[in-house]
Design a protein that fits this description.
Layout: E1 2-8, H1 12-23, E2 28-32, H2 39-44, H3 46-64, H4 66-69, H5 80-104, E3 108-111, E4 113-118, E5 121-125, E6 131-141, E7 145-147, E8 160-161, H6 163-166, E9 175-179, H7 183-195, E10 198-202, H8 214-226, E11 230-232, E12 235-242, E13 247-253, E14 260-265, E15 267-270, E16 274-276, H9 283-286, E17 309-311, H10 322-336, E18 350-352, E19 357-362, H11 365-371, E20 375-381, H12 386-391, E21 397-403, E22 409-416, H13 419-431, H14 436-440, H15 451-462
Parallel strand pairs: 1-2, 1-6, 2-3, 6-17, 8-15, 9-10, 9-15, 10-11
Antiparallel strand pairs: 4-5, 5-6, 7-16, 12-13, 13-14, 18-19, 19-22, 20-21, 21-22
Helix pairs in contact: 1-10, 3-5, 3-7
The protein binds flavin-adenine dinucleotide and 1,4-dihydronicotinamide adenine dinucleotide.
């Protein structure tokens, strides 16, 4: 077969790129090495983790808050196999959704491992070892990423696990040590802490979610401590030794290398980042050399060193986020079709789906200080909101950073109920370069969590929050 475009990898980067190519009239194929479509995000990432986050939050609420709401429950217990089964059903529904979209858009799907024979010929090797080759004008590499696990962490998938195994534990563990206070460690650590597991998070840096605004780290640390999570900051895990039913974890203090801490737990979740995945892709056959971090180098058009071969998503530079991969999928499809698309990377929001949730877009306060940009902060705590009191979601705040002279919104950082959804308003306003006063003068429905954003804008623009 001959195609205009072949996409390798069916994650949010790949399947969105394929759909956009097909919409633009390009004859498109997509290759996926697993038997299901959707990639990391849909199968072992965003979707299953959010399914377990929702389930565990329901349990936690029922356990902790229902009585205050006047709802009495007897014999409340967790049915972990059912929780995992529901999560699997959610994933399956999404798999079917992507399959349907491929059919609807007349995209040919090949199941097997794709590798370059040359820049216009791709080999597909099925799990049973059969080979098939297709011809293609252009190629979009969207092969994603895999968890990083150093060899000395003895990853056995039983006691020493990554996010992939952590999504399928069928009995609530008594204890879990999480290596890494990044997004995965906090989200999956929260799932188990809510279900009653003693969770300890060991983080090398001074604070958790170190890439986000420092106020968000502080607020979230406070909330997660209330949930019972223990943090050991400024410690580097050096040894992980599994036995049949336990795992021993040793960490060294960064302040004094002779000081070590050790834990014995049911599981050790390794969540120290992900590496771009290009194994067996045959990049050498086309002369593409990954950079020092294993990423495929691309130019501003997301084209590799080889004209006609593009790369997107986790396998290239930038944030490892599903929505970033999606934007890049659309961008490359439109570029191939001769359009001139644009991605505003600075306004790609980041979200952590703990409870309270955390979200942020634009500059953090630390970045503005470092750049010497004059700014004025406006903050508003959720506990001052009627809506938050009604739902007992008092933790958190909205912080707006506006330019000191022009009042343009430069960054918005939220910790609180529904922060993941609230950030969309900030992104929209910042896309249109709104000022804090613009936002403050827009009517926000009452009572809503979104009022906190308006109030923070009022506070930034003229220190005149109404409800505080
Ligand atoms: P992937 O989704 O990794 O897809 C790549 C696909 O390519 C895979 O299916 C793989 O099998 C296939 N492939 C690889 N090599 C070949 C080959 N040679 N031939 C054929 N197929 C191949 N991001 C968010 O924005 N929000 C979240 O809430 C979120 N939650 C996450 C939770 C967890 C636990 C994890 C692990 C990640 C999460 N992410 C989240 C990150 C998100 O999953 C990734 O950023 C996103 O999946 C990247 O998309 P991608 O298309 O680049 O690659
Ligand atoms: P991460 O990069 O977010 O965090 C890893 C943390 O581990 C860092 O804080 C690092 O300092 C720490 N660390 C590294 N080595 C250590 C050691 N030896 N001892 C102690 N701490 C150590 O990586 P994570 O959480 O694995 O996530 C991977 C990617 O997946 C992220 O880039 C993220 O964007 C994406 N993701 C996004 C989600 C979302 O958008 N909600 C959810 C989950 C993942």
């Amino acid at each position: 077969m001959t195609y205009d475009v072949t996409v390798i990898g069916s994650g949010p980067g790949g399947y969105v790129a394929a759909i956009r190519c097909a919409q633009l009239g390009l004859k498109t194929a997509i290759i996926e090495r697993y038997s299901v479509l959707g990639g990391t995000c849909l199968n072992v990432g965003c979707i299953p983790s959010k399914a377990l986050l929702d389930s565990s939050e329901h349990y936690h609420n029922a356990h902790t808050n229902f009585a205050t709401h006047g709802i009495e429950l007897k014999d409340l217990k967790v049915n972990m196999p059912q929780m995992v089964k529901r999560k699997n059903e959610v994933v399956l529904d999404n798999n079917k959704g992507v399959e349907f979209l491929m059919k609807k858009n007349k995209i040919d799907v090949y199941y097997g491992h794709g590798s370059f024979v040359n820049k216009n010929r791709i080999r597909i090797t099925t799990p049973s070892g059969n080979n098939e080759e297709i011809e293609t004008g252009k190629v979009i590499i969207a092969t994603g990423s895999k968890p990083i696990v150093p060899a000395n962490f003895n990853y056995d998938k039983k006691r020493v696990i990554t996010s992939t195994e952590a999504l399928n534990i069928e009995k609530v563990p008594e204890s879990m040590v999480v290596i890494g206070g990044g997004v995965i460690g906090l989200e999956l650590g929260s799932v188990y802490a809510r279900l009653g597991t003693k969770v300890t998070i060991v983080e090398y840096l001074d604070r958790i979610i170190a890439g986000m605004d420092a106020d968000c780290s502080r607020e979230l640390t406070r909330s997660l401590k209330k949930l019972g999570i223990e943090f050991q900051l400024r410690h580097a895990v050096t040894e992980v030794t599994p036995s049949r039913s336990k795992v021993k974890v040793v960490a060294k203090s960064r302040d004094d290398e002779s000081r070590t801490l050790s834990w014995e737990a049911d599981y050790c979740l390794v969540a120290i980042g992900r590496r771009p995945y290009t194994d067996g892709l045959g990049l050498e056959s086309v002369g593409i050399a990954p950079d020092e971090k294993g990423r495929i180098p691309v130019n501003d058009h997301l084209e590799t060193a080889v004209p006609g071969i593009y790369a997107i998503g986790d396998v290239v530079r930038g944030a490892m986020l599903a929505h970033k991969a999606e934007e890049e999928g659309v961008f490359v499809a439109e570029t191939i079709a001769g359009q001139k698309p644009h991605i505003h990377y600075h306004l790609i929001p980041g979200v952590v789906y703990t409870w309270p949730e955390v979200s942020g877009v634009g500059y953090t306060e630390e970045e503005l200080k470092e750049k010497g940009v004059p700014y004025k902060p406006g903050k508003f705590p959720f506990r001052a909101l009627g809506r938050a009191r009604a739902s007992m979601d008092l933790d958190g705040m909205v912080k707006v950073l506006a330019h000191k002279e022009t009042d343009e919104i430069l960054g918005v950082h939220i910790v609180g109920a529904r922060a993941a959804d609230l950030i969309a308003e900030a992104v929209a306003l910042m896309e249109f370069r709104a000022s804090a006063e613009d936002a403050a003068r827009m009517s926000h429905a009452h009572p809503t969590f979104a009022e906190a954003f308006k109030e923070a804008c009022l506070s930034a623009t003229a220190n005149r929050a109404i409800q505080l």
